[in-house]
Structure formats: structure tokens, C-alpha cells
């Protein structure tokens, strides 16, 4: 099904052509005066200059050709030359039925399906997952799902931080605690045990302890750096410890992400990119891009059009160590080889903006990716507490993700119990679903780049622009359908009839924009647009519900039409929340 705006625009362009003007003036937009019209075209104003005529005369001429339009029920030219449009009821009902019966709610498959890599999550192995990682996971997951819905082949990669100093710190700490372990016996020639020498809870305690020690004990820090270097150079015993750290930590990470409804296709990390580094560096040198500067190897990335001075990208430090950027570049080499992506999307804290500018520019300069390759950095802001500072626990520590989820589920539970419509047992289960929705919607409804305040009271409220409000609307539809089915049985083919009243039409107009919103949402990598849309849609549904007798309607055909309409609304809402990465309970 063609997008409604495309259908309208086509019709308008036809009218401009028929009236003797260029079709390009027939651009239509949503009305900015919803009190006057639903859509509008301002093309007559632009055409006036080129054709040296009065805009209103042009508008009147164009309107003449829309008198018999099947799409519009009202077309008017108003001073100084606007064309105001109202969509015809019959056309709208047809459009609704097309969505109702069509695949993917009438959304057309992408014209040019692309292979897209979404790099998100970015957890650091062996360090606890904290709220800083929440946004990456939540936003990235939404973007991945949105891309898939639009019709692309999207691959989500967690890109673990699994190759850094934390590994050396853990190794050294372990050595101090258990020097008798075979990994630390330089003369050892046997096999390494399959069982890790630590559990996840031990590991979770080891890293912070080692990290704290390294801040006060310079010698310890140096030993940890040395251990990291040995690991990275392939020293077998340390590689064996690394494998243990990975297996223990990954199991825990997978559980955590799964609780968030976040699923990765690839569990790769910085370590996987290491084999690609030497050849890549040779190539950068050979191409004359990388050069020595104060012992380090760097690539200039500044461009003439830059408004501020951008430092060169450091590829190798003077001590020979590779850096974060080196790893990211080598990862691109690997991804090119494995997937030939058309589009790269990185969802990472916005403070890493410079890093990604450097990486993208080097990748293009060096021909690691083709010049036309799309490379996007979705830099997100910080989640703050009510004090406007980065979110902390009450004790002032870093809040762990699990605790945050537990807190918000508890708040959701209390809200659900206020309603007293379900048993405490059911409320417990429901609260998990509602809590996650509250958390994710609270995050996603803001433009990603902006910082936002984590406000548990507001996020869990059943009213206003919140996740629970959207879920509540879905639950309301479920309840309407249940009541209807109890009396009339399962609706066979509830054909939606042309709207008669304003609330009905408003709801249909909102529904009809579904495909457009999905497309624009992915195009702009903006999940908040989907949130804004489902909020508007929920408001329209609730307005319709309050103004319309659905269950008491005596005209059975009309009633079936209402059922078709609310069912379609539910499908659109559940599809959208699915893209945002959460679900709705049956009732709440
Ligand atoms: N591990 C990094 C961090 O915690 C994020 C990784 C983001 N992805 C990337 N390709 N650099 O800051």
C-alpha cells in the first residue's frame, strides 16, 4: 500500500500539472492548523514567483482540478494562496481496510533493502553492567527492530569491551589471591582446567577491588599493564584466564540483556578485531596516511570545512599498543569482509563523538569502506537523577541495572495495585512487563541526544506520555474486544465504515500515517518519533472510546466497523511497542 502522504501528494501534483504548472509545486504536508484542515499545500506561493502570478489565482486554478478527487472531500484555496485539504471519508475507510487486511499493516517493503550493522550495547566484560549501558541497549535495540520492520537486513552486534586493562587487573588480583594456580606457574606445561577459578559473584568483586587498588598502588597498576600486554601478545596461561573471564561474564551479560528484551545477533568484541590490526596498519602506512608523530603513529583527519580543529587519530601509541580507535577500525575491516554492510550505525554515549568522527574519516580515507558507505553515530545523552546529575543509587554509588529494573518493577506493582483490578500474584508478573515498558519508554520518548531525568514516579504513571499509558490503552482495547466477543462472538470480517464523527476520523487519520512514521523513524534513527506517534494514537483511541457507544451500538454493521477500527489500533500499537522493545500485558 502506498503511504497516504504519497497518495495525496501524487493527487496534488496531478492537479498542478493539469492547471499548467510544474508538478514539483504539489508538495503536501500535514496541516499546521488542524482546526482548519488535515493536510495542506503551500506550492502556489512558490509557483507565484516563477510564473509571475498571484498565489491565490494559482491556488484557485489548481483547486478546480481537485473537485472530483476521490481522495479529498474538501479542498479550498485561502489567502494568500494556501490549499487546505480534508481527506474523504470513503477514501479513509478504504485505506483503513487496506491496513487491516494487508501484510505488515500495509507497510511496503523497502525499495532498496540494505545490510545494516547496528553496534550497540558495548558492555565491558567483567565490569558490572550499569545504567550507563542502559541507553545504548535500549536505543540500539529499537533502531535494530525498526530497521528490520522497514525491510532491511539488520545485524545487531554487542561489540564487547573485552580487550582492555580490566583483564590485566583481574589477572594480577587473582595472582595475589591465589598464587598457587597453575596459570601463574611459569614452568607449568600441563592443560588448563575447564572450570573457571571464580564464580560470577567473585568476579564481580575482584574487578572493583583490583581497579581500586590500581588507583593507589602504582606498582600494582604497572603489573596489571604488563599482564594486559602479555595477554594481548598471546601468552597462553593468561589467554586461558581470559577465556574463563569471558565465559563467566558472558553468561551473566546474556541474562541481563535478555531481562531487558535485548537480543544480539553477534557477540563479538574488541578482541575479535585484533588479528586485523597489523595488516591494516601496514596498509595505512603504505598509503602514506599514517605517519610518526612524537613516537606514535597517527592519521590526519581534519577537513577544510571543519569549524573546529580536529586532532589526528592515533593508531598506535609510542609503546606499540593499539588504541580504542585502532580496534574500531579493525572491526570495520572485519565487518566489511564478513558482511559488506551498506550502513553502519553506532549507538554510543555522545561523549564519544570525536572518536567516531575520527574512525569514520580514517575508514573512508583509507578505503576500508567505500566512499558512499553510510556511517552514522547515534550519540546519546546521560540519564540523570532528579538532582540533574548522572543517576546514582541513594548511597551515591553507581546504580546497577538489575537494581534499577527491580526498583521500577516495584513502582509499577504499586501503581497496578492502586487499580485493584487484578490479584497480587498477577500484578507481580504484570509489573515486570509494565516496569520494563516504563523504563524503556521513559528513555526512548526523549530525543536520544538529550540528557533526561530518570523520574520513577512519572515513568510509571498510567497517565500522560508514559509507557504504562500506552499499555493501559492496549489493555482497554482488549477489554472492549472481550466484552464484544462475549455477546457477539469472534468478529468475522469487521469492515471499517467511513467515519461519521470527529473522534472516529481523528483516530483513522492517525492510523493512516503509520507507514510514514515507521519510515521516517528509521530514516532519522529516531525512536522518539514512534513514541510521539503512539502517544497521539492512544489519545485518539481514548477520545474515540469516550465519545462513542461501542458495546451499546445497535446498528450491527456500524458496531462491527468500530470493532475493526479498535482492533486495527491495537495492531498498530502492539507493532510499535514491539519495535520499541517492550510488550503489553493482557490487562492491568
Ligand atoms: N565499550 C565501550 C564503552 O563502554 C563502548 C563500545 C561502543 N562501540 C564501539 N564500536 N566503540 O564505552
TrEMBL record:
<dbReference type="Pfam" id="PF03485">
    <property type="entry name" value="Arg_tRNA_synt_N"/>
</dbReference>
<dbReference type="InterPro" id="IPR036695">
    <property type="entry name" value="Arg-tRNA-synth_N_sf"/>
</dbReference>
<dbReference type="InterPro" id="IPR014729">
    <property type="entry name" value="Rossmann-like_a/b/a_fold"/>
</dbReference>
<dbReference type="GO" id="GO:0004814">
    <property type="term" value="F:arginine-tRNA ligase activity"/>
</dbReference>
<keyword id="KW-0067">ATP-binding</keyword>
<keyword id="KW-0547">Nucleotide-binding</keyword>
<feature type="short sequence motif" description="'HIGH' region">
    <location>
        <begin position="123"/>
        <end position="133"/>
    </location>
</feature>
<keyword id="KW-0963">Cytoplasm</keyword>
<dbReference type="Pfam" id="PF05746">
    <property type="entry name" value="DALR_1"/>
</dbReference>
<keyword id="KW-0648">Protein biosynthesis</keyword>
<keyword id="KW-0436">Ligase</keyword>
<dbReference type="Pfam" id="PF00750">
    <property type="entry name" value="tRNA-synt_1d"/>
</dbReference>
<comment type="subunit">
    <text>Monomer.</text>
</comment>
<keyword id="KW-0030">Aminoacyl-tRNA synthetase</keyword>
<dbReference type="InterPro" id="IPR005148">
    <property type="entry name" value="Arg-tRNA-synth_N"/>
</dbReference>
<feature type="domain" description="Arginyl tRNA synthetase N-terminal">
    <location>
        <begin position="2"/>
        <end position="87"/>
    </location>
</feature>
<comment type="similarity">
    <text>Belongs to the class-I aminoacyl-tRNA synthetase family.</text>
</comment>
<dbReference type="InterPro" id="IPR008909">
    <property type="entry name" value="DALR_anticod-bd"/>
</dbReference>
<dbReference type="InterPro" id="IPR009080">
    <property type="entry name" value="tRNAsynth_Ia_anticodon-bd"/>
</dbReference>
<dbReference type="InterPro" id="IPR001278">
    <property type="entry name" value="Arg-tRNA-ligase"/>
</dbReference>
<feature type="domain" description="DALR anticodon binding">
    <location>
        <begin position="470"/>
        <end position="588"/>
    </location>
</feature>
<dbReference type="InterPro" id="IPR035684">
    <property type="entry name" value="ArgRS_core"/>
</dbReference>
<protein>
    <recommendedName>
        <fullName>Arginine--tRNA ligase</fullName>
        <ecNumber>6.1.1.19</ecNumber>
    </recommendedName>
</protein>
